[in-house]
């Protein structure tokens, strides 16, 4: 971590600051328009039918992928990473769930015909214990050893033949410093599905920094002079930075 005790933005007159702020505002408006364009392109993506049968373990027993829709047309699946060695949830996933997967948020999704399903590779018993500790009520399922996290790049594992992540193959990941071997490694990811009757289709999937938008405090940190304080950011000399695994 860098010492920021003397790291300050330059001090200018109000007129100079206003000119700089208006210049940045023009860039922000460009970014907003670009985001709108990208969102429109996302809505126009084609889709692919899910042919394999997956069964998940929930409080009410075995559930199919179709069941996770809860009768709605759209389904957002969030991968909750698990720390196997400690039998506990990932701290970042925990913070994200605390902030996002509230009854108020779910009600807004449901109004727009979207269901949420959180999934983890760990056992249902571990999920239920952790869920009770946190006081959560959102739907959370165990994959129960099925192929879903491996087929959809949520867990990488050489022994399962799951060696791709974020649409990059094994060779590309190794070249980027990811590591020489994969063994039951959960990584950030989310998936979106649409159903037509009983047929289920994948429409979207994002990984790594593609999930930035679901970490609300990033939006606030991006407005501050110190930013997220992660070492991959372009920041003024002397700013605080913390090591961050930025492979993607």
TrEMBL record:
<dbReference type="InterPro" id="IPR010296">
    <property type="entry name" value="DUF899_thioredox"/>
</dbReference>
<protein>
    <submittedName>
        <fullName>DUF899 domain-containing protein</fullName>
    </submittedName>
</protein>
<dbReference type="Pfam" id="PF05988">
    <property type="entry name" value="DUF899"/>
</dbReference>
<dbReference type="InterPro" id="IPR036249">
    <property type="entry name" value="Thioredoxin-like_sf"/>
</dbReference>
